From TrEMBL, chain A:
UniProt organism field: Candidatus Sulfuritelmatomonas gaucii
Protein name: Glycolate oxidase subunit, FAD-linked
Keyword Oxidoreductase set for record: yes
Superkingdom of this protein's organism: Bacteria
Gene3D superfamilies: 3.30.465.10, 3.30.70.2740, Vanillyl-alcohol Oxidase, Chain A, domain 4
Automatic annotation (TrEMBL), chain B:
Highest classification ranks of the organism: Bacteria, Pseudomonadati, Acidobacteriota, Terriglobia, Terriglobales
Domain of life: Bacteria
GO terms, molecular function: catalytic activity; FAD binding
Gene expressing this chain: glcE
Start and end residues of each FAD-binding PCMH-type domain: 26-204
Keyword Flavoprotein: yes
Pfam family for this entry, one: FAD_binding_4
Protein name: Glycolate oxidase subunit GlcE
Keyword Flavoprotein: yes
Record key words, sorted: FAD, Flavoprotein
């Protein structure tokens, strides 16, 4: 609980209706989508304007209160997990779409805008907002920016960072700064590029300028059933080697198919590895490419190939895929979602290793992957009520991440490091890498108030590096701009 | 050596030769040029220079050395010896390249497996990977494939104090840690030395055809251009060119061979009534030619895409009134390169006025004009960078954290960074 004086200051900043301090209500905010980490915040504020965000952050800066921004709380790595006794700043009420410029293909939104609402807003003009996390009907643009979220279609269209042109940010000092511009290559360091994916540790995005994309003329979705995920994986490699860049390439294994079927009855064929290929673009091109994809799938031993014949069929296929995580809850009391990345070609090897590792500890792992970019979502199934099993499952999930790193990959493709993978980040990067990242952190947030103790393996202080710094004389004189 | 240096030039030569080898350490005018042979040697040179108070400018081939504010460093750190394509994982469509590798040399290596880094920078034969990144250069392909921010997936860099750091990795999808490579891209050698880069790759464009439509005014092309970008043609590149009072719009179509004729028909429909001519792919080198005009000032403008044609017309008109020759090559993404040459002598201020007016014009929509090349007579009369960002204090703080002694390219960047 925060001292009364500080609570009063917060109330003055956001009004009584924008402040939560009652313990029963605070509990709503004690975790995000990674529910096995829980911390009760000291207070939650729900600002409605940039000025209110600034006022709150200034209070935090003055009293050195840690703060954590929060969108919809769907994050899967504990990014929005509160700091003990700190302030949670929910951006949920800042949810207006401020500007739509079709001619220049951008929109400006507040951070609390729901991802799917951006597309809804521009759909009538024939455009869409490309990054499509499976959680897109609830997660916010602010959260997407912080996590550099992806989605099934980022293989072709890129990630949140690809589509972020400019940001307005409340810095951890409370000051406002603007990064980037609706025009490309604004002079100066690419701070928008650095901020996207910084997981709430560099400040709070209060306005985001997003690029929108022309909706393709045609979209076709194919399902191919293979005996093993590796055969499906080989098909993915062959499709890409043929020079195609499909909109999406997804694989599910037997367990994941079973779960998705139980949850949404997507009518998936029963098989060892199900491949979903989506192609989009101009009609005649899509049709030609679809024939090539079919041929490749047949060559790799697909037992069954189906192309969605209607928008409804297509939607059902995706519904099954997007529901896969939650669906696993139907076949296992508990599960851990992981998010490793490997070079595509390592897929068969890594899958075999995962199978061996899970077999050794008697746990089941369901696999769902964004196969086109090697992003695995192993779902480790376990039962919390069996003593010791949760620890074994957690350990297995971290060892899978290390396996990804050992194979030249990454510990996270889209969910972020957050609270969950801090130690794994230390496995992926060496100390000098982390120290250098810390230089950025310290430039933005010398007091480590913004989402403290996340991402990096251990808390660090922003002591200056040794070496005297003497400002350039022109800089001190304030004329540095002109020479 | 300047007064702040804690070492004589002779001593510095000895120390540097011990790191990089005597054959790769020499004196050129007022500066020492050293060409280390590895990332570790680069880091050692930096640590030494940083400790002794010697300023350092990293250089590739020097093709863009004149960009930014002028710097006269004590040390030029040449990347020429670190120039290998280290790895081409063609099945994963990624590669690892050392920073001193010439862009074209890298591309021809990658082309052996039909792949490329999907970016067309200036002077690919000379420009090095590190230099292209440090200057954040890009060409017409950006429309389809994005810029360096979207293509660079990992990096190794050496900081002023000799720290060697990596960020990103070898996989395209990766959100682990801060993306230091995005910070380094476009930082003009002021934060560290880029030593190695990982790229995501694309297939080489197989079946590409280029078409040109001529017009007297940009305004005549604005409507069809908007339509083209909204249509389902997805051109891989589009540029607007103006020279000698005439305008042209170049469009590159790239698709499966079976589909090219259909796309071409659509293109002709969009430019209904105007002559659509198929031309040689060399028009895509037009941007390079802007830098060849003797005495010309070359600027990079950042515009909203929909402002392109009108801005080009405006610039043309002002130029006529001021007896200035103007040539423009502008990408459909809104990035414009323009060469301005004053027929009545470089010392007149007409070009300065034109640039200032253009800056005023673009300001409200967030645009900017950066000077890339200008005759000495105009230097000092106008700010090279057009940075009015309220993030400048933060940028200075980042510089201070990365390079507290201002060893690297001091003063070259925005706001005197
Ligand atoms: C079922 C399910 C499926 C999912 N599928 C995907 C998927 O396909 N792809 C994918 O990438 N992710 C996926 N996610 C993860 C999650 O939805 C994303 O990370 C999303 O971007 C989080 O958005 P949010 O609004 O819920 O943010 P939160 O969870 O509230 O916050 C996430 C992080 O962002 C920070 N933050 C929030 N707002 C701001 C702001 N305005 N400024 C600065 N920092 C801020 C927080 O501090 C926190 O660190 C999935 C999650 C679920 C539950």
């Amino acid at each position: 609980m925060l001292p009364h004086g500080q609570i009063d200051e917060l109330r003055a900043a956001v009004g009584a209706g924008g402040l939560i301090t009652a313990e029963s209500q605070l509990q709503t905010y004690e975790c995000d989508g990674l529910t096995n980490f829980r911390v009760l915040p000291g207070a939650v504020v729900l600002p409605q304007t940039i000025e209110q965000v600034q006022a709150v952050v200034r209070i935090c800066a003055r009293h050195k209160i840690p703060f954590v921004s929060r969108g919809a709380g769907t994050g899967l790595s504990g990014g929005a997990l509160p700091a003990a006794g700190g302030v949670v700043i929910s951006l949920a009420r800042m949810n207006r779409i401020l500007d739509v410029d079709i001619a220049n293909r951008y929109v400006i939104v507040e951070p609390g805008v729901i991802n799917a609402h951006v597309t809804q807003r521009v759909a009538a003009d024939g455009y869409f907002y490309a990054p499509d996390p499976s959680s897109q009907s609830v997660c916010t643009i602010g959260g997407n920016v912080a996590e550099n979220s992806g989605g099934a279609h980022c293989l072709k269209y890129g990630f949140t960072v690809t589509h972020t042109l400019a940001l307005e940010v409340v810095l951890p000092s409370g000051e406002l700064a603007h990064f980037g511009s609706p025009t490309l290559d604004a002079p100066g360091y690419d701070l928008a590029g650095v901020f996207v994916g910084s997981e709430g540790t560099l400040g709070i995005a209060t306005k985001v300028t997003l690029r929108i994309v022309r909706r393709p003329e045609m979209v076709q979705t194919l399902l191919a059933a293979f005996p093993t995920p590796s055969a499906a994986g080989q098909t993915v490699s062959d499709i890409i080697a043929a020079g195609m860049l499909p909109a999406a390439l997804e694989i599910m294994d037997t367990l994941a198919i079973e779960a998705a079927e139980a949850a949404v009855h997507a009518h998936y064929p029963k098989c060892g590895g199900l491949l979903l290929v989506e192609l989009d673009g101009a009609c005649d091109e899509v049709e030609i490419l679809m024939r090539e994809v079919r041929a490749i799938a047949e060559k790799n031993g697909a037992a069954e190939i189906r192309v969605a014949q209607s928008e409804a069929e297509r939607a059902l296929i995706w519904k099954g895929r997007k529901a896969a995580f939650a669906a696993v809850g139907r076949i296992s009391p508990n599960y851990i979602v992981q998010d490793g990345v490997i070079p595509r070609t390592a897929l068969p090897r890594v899958l075999a290793d995962i199978e061996r590792m899970s077999g050794a500890v008697n746990l089941r792992v369901a696999n769902v992957f964004h196969a086109g970019d090697g992003n695995l979502h192993p779902l480790v199934l376990y039962d919390r009520s069996i003593e010791g099993q949760e620890e074994i499952a957690l350990d297995l999930s971290y060892r899978i991440l290390n396996l990804c790193v050992d194979n030249g990959g990454s510990i996270t493709g889209e969910h972020g490091v957050g609270k969950e993978k801090q130690q794994a980040l230390g496995y992926m990067f060496a100390e000098p890498d982390l120290e250098t990242m810390q230089l950025v952190r310290c430039a933005f947030d010398p007091e480590s108030l913004s989402n403290p103790d996340k991402v990096f393996p251990r808390p660090r202080l922003c002591a200056d590096k040794p070496g005297p710094y003497t400002p350039h004389p022109l800089e001190t004189a304030g004329v540095a701009e002109i020479f | 050596m300047n007064a702040t240096a804690a070492i004589t030039r002779e001593e510095a030569m000895v120390r540097l030769a011990a790191i990089a080898g005597p054959a790769d350490t020499r004196i050129d005018g007022d500066a020492i040029c050293v060409a280390p042979g590895s990332t570790e040697q680069i880091a050692e040179v930096l640590r030494f220079a940083n400790e002794c108070g010697l300023s350092v400018v990293p250089t590739g081939s020097g093709s863009k050395l004149g960009w930014g504010n002028p710097v006269a460093p004590e040390l030029f750190l040449g990347l020429g010896r670190v120039n290998a394509v280290r790895e081409h994982a063609w099945q994963d469509m990624t590669c690892t390249v050392e920073a001193g590798c010439a862009w074209a040399a890298m591309q021809s290596e990658l082309a052996r497996h039909g792949q490329m880094v999907a970016l067309d920078p200036l002077w690919p034969e000379r420009a090095t990977v590190g230099g292209v990144l440090a200057a954040n250069d890009s060409g017409a392909l950006r429309l389809r494939y994005g810029g360096l921010r979207d293509l660079v997936i990992g990096m190794t860099m050496a900081l002023a104090d000799g720290t060697i750091a990596k960020s990103g990795g070898k996989v395209v999808k990766n959100v682990a840690g801060y993306d230091l490579h995005k910070l380094m891209t476009g930082s003009f050698g002021t934060l560290g030395v880029i030593t190695e880069v990982n790229f995501r790759l694309h297939p080489v464009e197989q079946c590409a055809r280029t078409f040109t439509v001529g017009a007297q005014y940009g305004a005549q092309l604005a409507g069809p251009l908007a339509e083209l970008l909204h249509a389902q043609i997805a051109p891989s590149a589009v540029q607007l060119r103006t020279a000698a009072g005439q305008c042209a719009l170049d469009v590159r179509l790239c698709t499966r061979p079976e589909c090219l004729d259909g796309l071409t028909d659509q293109l002709r429909k969009i430019f209904n009534g105007m002559a659509v001519q198929e031309v040689d792919g060399r028009v895509w080198q037009a941007r390079e030619q802007l830098f060849c005009e003797a005495g010309a000032t070359v600027v990079k403008g950042s515009l909203l895409p929909a402002e392109l044609c009108a801005t080009a017309d405006d610039l043309k008109e002002t130029a006529v009134a001021k007896s200035v020759d103007v040539s423009i090559v502008a990408q459909a993404t809104g990035l414009m390169t323009a060469a301005l040459a004053d027929r009545r002598g470089a010392e007149r201020d007409s070009i300065v006025t034109m640039i200032e007016q253009l800056r005023e014009r673009l300001r409200p929509s967030g645009g900017s004009v950066v000077i890339l090349q200008t005759p000495d007579a105009l230097r000092g009369k106008i700010d090279v960078w057009d940075c009015r960002s309220d993030a400048l204090p933060l940028m200075r703080e980042i510089k201070r954290r990365f390079d507290p002694n201002r060893t690297l390219s001091p003063g070259r960047f925005v706001g005197g960074i």
